[in-house]
Design brief:
The structure holds two protein chains of two kinds. Chain A is an alpha/beta fold. Helix content of chain A is 55%, strand content 12%. Chain A folds into two domains: 50-164; 176-389, Rossmann fold. Chain A has helices spanning 4-23, 31-42, 50-65, 82-92, 95-128, 131-164, 176-183, 187-199, 216-223, 235-243, 253-258, 279-292, 309-313, 328-337, 365-379; strands spanning 207-210, 228-232, 248-250, 265-271, 293-304, 342-348, 383-389. Chain A has a seven-stranded mixed β-sheet with strand order 3-2-1-4-5-7-6, with helices on both faces. Chain B is α/β, with parallel strands linked by helices. Chain B folds into two domains: 9-156 and 348-361, 3-Layer(aba) Sandwich (Rossmann fold); 161-345, 3-Layer(aba) Sandwich (Rossmann fold), CATH 3.40.50. Chain B contains 14 helices and 13 strands. The chains are: A alpha/beta, B alpha/beta.
Chain lengths: 390, 362
């Protein structure tokens, strides 16, 4: 049996033996030094060989060949029950496109790497004049051209896709405020139009207004002594409202509502908002309203009335952010299905008499009736609201 | 809807995740352990394409702070990872695997050498952000203490002894291992400067030329540093040491076959935070001859032949010749090696680490 002392003695013996051999001339006296020097001369100066370069290039191409695009949508949420809402939001804002763009960048980096190695290969081939390597370079160059073509095709498909996603964020160069001023009427007329809606929320504090625009309705709430706050996706509108002392935040309907505790709102009002959402967003936002507004609370959604043909053909399409009109029957259906206690459709923004068909008098009663029906179909109320109690 | 308290997520962060890398493998094996606390994911700045499904790029780390603990495996510097760790608010458990001193790499890869040098500074600079710190050897713990860390817990690495032992090598692997002219001297280490494969080549050159050594040196391990690999190839060819096989990376099947076939496992490494292959060798009853640098003496103990750091390749050649001619010594070292390996396996790495991370998570 060996012990630790034996190992120590062994090391000692080995040391003596090396010294003896060296003294006896069995090794060259400076063997180890010469071996060290020999290795040190190689240093890092040695160039990669053409074969190694081509190996590296093959590797780079293998990486490209295995590259595949995947839908990349974050659906993580720390909010209880927020997963579904997140998925919806992700769909709506077209994050897939960002994901694909990221992957596209990775792919394009890989192509760039391959091109970099390619250059080294060419230089190396020029140095060595190797016939077969030159052939391989030709082959890989062909492959590179093919990959570049693929990249272009993907890029144009991506552009296509981006243009087709409804509700995808656009980048208007004009100010949102300017748009609102041009098409939504003066502040005073807006205040007049919504005074009656505001009164519906008496006793329903706190009220959230999604999409407050210039904030006229929030001001009406304040004047009526109803505690209200608002969200808007456009930071410029938020800043403007905040500077007027309103309680506002930047946010979008689905994301913001999903983050609120259940039954935490007394009222929710969305004026001219749902037509900005894709169909799934409309469906989800009613569900969220049912979750976040406490029983007895009030919800009002006002939107463009597509059953009035003049409005549908005309006003609806002024705003490029409108996705599609929401039919009153469908919206009412959603509210009922979501379990609201009362659901009522209210006509709003009747056209003044001089903008409608002039009433016929003294004619055949059938003609009068038909005329009235045509008038209602063409020049019905421009908006409608669903007024619901939770 | 009722609010369900969310479990704390445990995210392991590495600079580089590469197939066959010991630290990557450790992190992968820890994932199911940390999943006992909550969701556990792996993130790395550089991700080997082979691991893309398992390790997420650090860019994909969730923006929003949440209930998370970051377990950071430190083994090299990387400014982007360091900035990431400094900017996050999650508590960090630092697992220090040691960082190779930069001077080994300076002649071969100055960029990498710079990262190594930065790595040490970064570990020091991270002190204010670190909730708990773990070292995998007393050697590493001493380095951390020198950087100003106190309360360092030493947790030896997870030694999954069952993994390689459970493998019954395939006939093809055994055939390949046995085809090398015996005796088989095995080195399991990445082909990198601080591992000193050049020293091993020289030792085998001396043993062969002057001591009549008839066997083979197998250099098993990844060869990621191209200029260094070229230099070793050139050294082997210019010295005419036909008995060195630059085996490169191997799968577990061949590795198990090589351990079962090897007559001795050697290490010339001048820097090791632990040196797992030596434990693997001892567990297979293969005698170990290693140079006594860094954590190697702590790992081997008195279960192998430790060569004094000042002695050169001729000394290692003598040691190999002596060991291979003395069956009593071989048997004795084999027995001690097995005992030593079992001792180290007995320590429950995973459970200790789990307790530390859980302590930070609550």
């Amino acid at each position: 049996m060996w012990g630790t002392e034996d190992l120590d003695r062994l090391l000692e013996t080995l040391g003596h033996r090396v010294d003896q051999r060296r003294a006896a001339g069995a090794y060259p006296a400076d063997l180890e030094r010469r071996l060290d020097e020999h290795f040190t001369t190689f240093g890092a100066t040695s160039e990669p060989s053409p074969v190694e370069l081509v190996e590296a290039l093959d590797h780079a191409f293998a990486e490209l060949a295995t590259f595949s695009f995947r839908p990349d949508t974050s659906t993580e949420s720390r909010i209880p029950g927020g997963q579904a809402a997140h998925r919806t939001v992700a769909r709506i804002v077209g994050r897939q496109i960002d994901g694909v763009a990221g992957q596209l960048r990775t792919y394009s980096d890989a192509v760039e790497r391959a091109i970099g190695i390619m250059r080294l290969v060419v230089e190396s081939v020029v140095r060595t004049y190797e016939q077969d390597l030159a052939q391989r370079v030709d082959d890989t160059q062909d492959a590179l051209v093919e990959h570049a073509g693929r990249l272009n095709a993907i890029e144009s498909r991506l552009d296509d896709l981006a243009a087709r996603v409804p509700g995808a964020p656009r980048s208007p160069w004009y100010r949102s405020e300017a748009f609102v001023d041009a098409f939504r009427g003066g502040t005073e007329s807006v205040r007049e139009r919504y005074l009656d809606l505001v009164e519906l929320f008496t006793g329903c504090d706190p009220v959230l207004e999604v999409g407050f625009g210039r904030g006229e309705v929030l001001e009406l709430f304040g004047e009526a002594g109803i505690q209200a706050s608002g969200i808007e996706p456009d930071p410029a509108l938020v800043d403007a409202a905040r500077s007027r002392g309103l309680r506002v935040e930047t946010g979008t309907a689905l994301e913001y509502l999903a983050a609120q505790p259940d039954a935490s709102l007394g009222g929710l009002v969305m004026i001219q908002v749902v037509e900005h959402l894709p169909p799934q967003g409309v469906i989800d936002v009613v569900r969220l309203a049912a979750e976040k507004v406490r029983p007895g609370g009030r919800v009002v959604f006002e939107t463009v009335n597509p059953t009035s043909l003049s409005t549908y053909a005309n006003a609806f399409w002024v705003d490029p952010d409108h996705v599609r009109p929401v039919h009153p029957a469908f919206l009412a259906f959603l509210f009922r299905e979501a379990g609201f206690a009362t659901v009522e459709r209210v006509d709003r923004s009747e056209l003044p008499a001089d903008e409608r068909l002039r009433p016929t008098t003294g004619a055949d009663p059938a003609v009068v009736a038909n005329f009235a029906r045509i008038d209602a179909l063409l020049f019905g109320p421009q908006d409608y609201a669903i007024v619901a109690t939770r | 809807m009722t609010a369900v308290p969310t479990a704390t997520a445990v995210d392991q962060v590495l600079v580089t995740a590469a197939a066959g890398d010991a630290i990557t493998n450790l992190a992968r094996s820890l994932r199911p352990v940390f999943e006992r606390i909550g969701p556990s994911r792996l993130f790395a700045r550089n991700v080997d394409p082979h691991l893309a499904g398992e390790v997420a790029p650090l860019d994909a780390y969730p923006d929003r702070a949440g209930r998370r603990v970051i377990v950071f495996h430190a083994s090299i510097g990387e400014p982007i990872v360091h900035r990431f760790l400094q900017q996050r608010s999650e508590p960090i458990v630092l697992v220090y695997h040691n960082i190779t001193p930069a001077e080994h790499f300076a002649p071969w890869d100055p960029t990498f050498a710079a990262l190594l040098a930065e790595g040490r500074e970064e570990v020091g600079a991270l002190r204010g952000r670190v909730a708990r710190v773990v070292a995998d050897s007393p050697f590493n713990a001493r380095e951390l203490a020198a950087m100003g860390y106190d309360d360092v817990v030493v947790v030896p690495p997870a030694l999954d002894g069952r993994r390689l032992h459970a493998i019954e090598p395939s006939a093809a692997a055994l055939e390949r291992a046995r085809a090398f002219p015996a005796p088989l001297v095995l080195s399991v280490a990445q082909l990198l400067p601080h591992k000193r494969p050049d020293f091993l080549v020289e030792a085998v050159h001396v043993a062969r030329t002057y001591l009549g050594f008839p066997g083979t040196l197998c250099l098993v391990g990844h060869q990621r540093l191209a200029p260094y690999r070229r230099a070793i190839r050139r050294q082997i060819s210019e010295l005419g040491v036909t008995s060195v096989d630059l085996t490169g990376p191997v799968d577990d099947d061949l590795l198990a076959a090589l351990y079962r076939t090897a007559d001795v496992v050697v290490s010339a490494s001048e820097h090791e935070g632990f040196c797992l292959p030596l434990i693997e060798a001892m567990s297979f009853g293969v005698p170990v001859v290693a140079r006594a640098f860094a954590a190697v003496p702590e790992t081997v103990g008195d279960a192998g032949i430790l060569l004094p750091p000042g002695r050169g390749p001729a000394f290692m050649a003598e040691a190999l010749a002596e060991l291979l001619s003395d069956t009593a010594l071989q048997e004795d070292l084999a027995r001690r090696g097995r005992d030593r390996a079992i001792d180290l396996w007995g320590r429950d790495h995973d459970r200790t680490l789990l307790a530390i991370v859980r302590g930070v998570a609550v």
